[in-house]
Amino acid sequence: MSGDRPVDVAARLVRERFPGVLAAFLGGSSVTGRRTPWSDLDIVVVLDGPPAPFRETLRFEGWVVELFVQTETSIEYYWGSDAERRRTPLLRMVADGVILAGGDGAATAFQERAAALLAAGPVAPDAATIDYQRYLLTDLVDDLRGCTEPVELAYLAATLMLAASDFLLLAENRWSARGKWLPRRIGEVDPDLPGRLAAGQRAVAVDGDREPLIAAVLAVLDFAGGPLQEGFVLSGKDPGRNAE
Questions:
Q1: 68 and 43, same structural domain?
Q2: Which Pfam families match (predicted)?
């Protein structure tokens, strides 16, 4: 791995590989205090046409590089696609990233657009969606309570930790995430909750003690009215009748 700063390495790659670039950004952990020896370089590049859009992983000067190469229209498409899933990786790489290229204000314009979309937040879920996820999460809690098979118990604990995290962000209408970014997102809502969920999952795995995890999940359910079982109704569709 090069001893140079990640920004310098990323800028050299962009200059060598994309001489006609409209804008480029370095995002991800490599430009933050959370960088580790295993961090890669997440680089978003905007071109005026082919070969974009594409994604590529490569090695450059010892760094693993994730390239996200877009056009002006494709980046809007993928921003929208991510937003429908309540995720924002590409948006954040641009909004929070370091500008590597993009004269005449092009890069700044992309950053301002990305920041505005992030600030607007995801589309608010309707009450039926919230209730359905409350019901599913409540059911998982009961599964954990009644489970007697050790392997299934371990899977249930891990599933509950992730499901509760996703539910909290849905109920609070926040952007979601995956991997290391998920506890960071839920920590923005409740700073203590990521640690409580992780400790609860660990207590199940190490000691078989389910109560800390159950308590943490019930606290999450309280954000949206508590557990839901009796009284839950989910309307279905009849394609044949609806076609009449």
A1: yes
A2: NTP_transf_2
